[in-house]
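A quick aside before the break. I want you to see a complete sequence-to-structure record at least once, exactly as it would be stored in a machine-readable document. Don't worry about memorizing anything.
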Amino acid sequence: MFGQGRLRRWRLPARAPHGPAEPRSPIARALADQLFSRVAGADRVSGSLELLLDAAANYPAWLAAIEAAERVVDFENYIVRDDATGRRFADALTAAAGRGVRVRVLYDWLGCIGTPRRYWRRLREAGVEVRCFNRPRLDSPFGWLSRNHRKTIGIDGAVGFVAGLCVGDAWVGDPAQGVPAWRDTGVAVRGPAVADLHAAFGQAWAFAGGEADPPAMPAPHVREEAPEPGGMALRVIGSRPSTMGIYRLDQLVAAWAQRSLWLTDAYFVGTTSYVRALCAAARDGVDVRLLVPGSSDIPAAQALSRAGYRPLLEAGVRVFEWQGPMLHAKTAVADGRWARIGSSNLNIASWAGNWELDVAVEDEGFAGQMEAAYERDLEDATEITLDPSGVHGSTDLARQRGHGVRRRRGSPGRLAAGAVGLGNTVTAAITNHRVLGAAEAVVMAAAGAGLLVVALACLLVPLLVTIPLALVAAYVAAALLVRALRLRHGARP
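That is the input. The structure line, written in tokens, reads:
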């Protein structure tokens, strides 16, 4: 329910997609290339992409490429489960190492916190080099909030994969039990662009304590001003904390789009500036659409996403909720000629806090495939509209959507994104700088109740607040002094 109206869920056919934008002049195209390169922090390079939908297309392609590897396999993923799917990948990776292939696996500490040590021990004993990304450290109290959220594979400098998929049975589902697979998207990358995937992996590998440029790595490719015959113009965007490359790129695309901008995101919690960019595009007549999960594995993120629907809908942005068990894809397609696929969600955790990796491509044929896939997804989605009559939609569908979705607490990054969304709502309520809707009442009530509990604790039991604050301050002070001494003596922080 928003403002004076309520949400109503409709099963509506989506409008027909726009055709590709008219080609710009050579001068405008050159300026656009320069602008995109500087904003994203990634040069244009030649390559080709193959669209892979869901685990049914991604996992077999990943396994086949690992089985065919001859020199090096760089495998990087946020979550790797010790289940049937995870063990299939362990078998493939250990077999490659047994053939003499240099296999390097980089996993995130928090994402894989439920994966037992025996899983990694098995890989190491088979000759696989395994590193854990960013374990908590005493001298970095909040450094663990930054996670490696990438999902990439690079093989022999010839083929690579970029996706939103982690490695686990949730992406496969269980047809025998009636549990559908999660909806997700990835791409296979071939050509000179694969070297950029290896290079991005090398940066994260070095951060985790590995060699920056091991001898087994393919030599860097020579960049070309134009794609090779039959190739595409790509950008491999390996973002790191505080670089904000993906955020700047998403803002630029929202401002640059002339006809259409179709977004799919698993955990949408847009910042105020990004929401305004989408609203401005919609008011200018751009067909802006946002497809999000109807049922999420992180309910708090879903609640914050829904709290932000109202300004989008009022500006003309079309919002859809997918009906399946979980929509985990992170994609964008604009003007029938530009597309982005990868690990970055549209929230502050991905934009500013995590290590992420995405591929952006300028190719009408590939963008057309992305639009066709988007239209198919909308066939299984309901559109959210503002309904002044106050008629409620069906709640049965919402309950059905939760089938097969495993609820999780979520990562600190997603919690940070949720905190930003919560802060936006609370700030708006206090400063009265925008109209709030009824859907944000729950968020404000929760924030108010939490602050009231803190206030009562401060009044009734002051030590309950001051002692934890003092301990935290002492811990942070000690960490700063230790790191200062290490830097003073030239040690690596």
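Two observations worth writing down. Confidence is low (pLDDT under 50) at residues 1-22, 215-226, 389-403, 412-418. The first helix runs from residue 26 to 40. We'll return to this after the break.
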